[in-house]
Amino acid sequence: MLLKFYKPKNEILQKYIEGYYFLIKKEEEPTVEYLTFPNNYSIISVYENTEVTYHENTAIINEKKGNPFESDLICHYKKPIKVICKGNLNEITFYFKPLGLNAFLEQPLCQYTSTFFSKFIPFDDYDKVMTSLLREKKKKKRREQLEDYWLSKLIGFKHSYLQKILIDIENYYSVSELAEKHKISRQNITKHFEANLCKTPSEYKKIHRFRKALKTHIKKNDTDNLTSLSYDLLFYDQSHLIKDFKSLTGLTPKKFFNSLSTQENGEINWLFV
Predict the structure, then answer these.
(1) Crossing angle of the two packed helices 175-182 and 162-169, in degrees rounded to 10
(2) What is the value of pTM for the model shown?
(3) Which bin fits 70, alpha (ψ -120 to 50), beta or left (φ > 0)?
(4) CA-wise closest residue to 159 among 195, 207, 187
(5) Of 73, 230, 249, 271, which sits 20 to 30 A from 131 (CA to CA)?
(6) Which phi and psi (to 5°) does residue 157 adopt?
């Protein structure tokens, strides 16, 4: 199975898209199974001749001729997912930064997804263009056309306070502190988080702190010093850190760190099983 992750070349897109990857798997290659873990990105995957089924935190991606195009959006991402890849596969997956996808959509993000795994066709020409991209064999040309397409759909996103609150919550403000600082009710903050991020502020903060713990671990390369990691990231104590890790990965921090797989940029997305 070939998988290559790219950062956007275009500086404008870099504000909204964390990156994207191309995945190609041949039929003769064995079935691939891996775990993938929660993050605060909006994730879009597009496939050619593929069927994706989801059941009890397991996604099965299987070749299905006669199903020329499929597109899925994942925003409600709070538990680890086991992914099983079978047969010939041709996939492009996009990782949009928090609030990033909103800059390309006419409606709030919640209008495009009501469940964990939602079919996603946001534009009239979307399936035609994405199918063409999937069939493009030259990676350089595919990247150029892909980025040109998203640029053509960029309309921007403006909100009176969400961008500021994201900065504060990533600095570990509580919801009560956010409400007091920005003179907005907790209910109103939660309402706008759910509409534009498909998460509550508490869920967003929990996932952000988990992801920060992963990056801190990679930088320090110190699996055993969980007490230091807890203090660095303002967990209440080590047991709080372990509880969050079990909730988001199904594993204790030590077991998780001993088994993880990272991208070239140090971002952790999956664990092969």
Answers:
(1) 140
(2) 0.87
(3) beta
(4) 195
(5) 271
(6) -140, 125
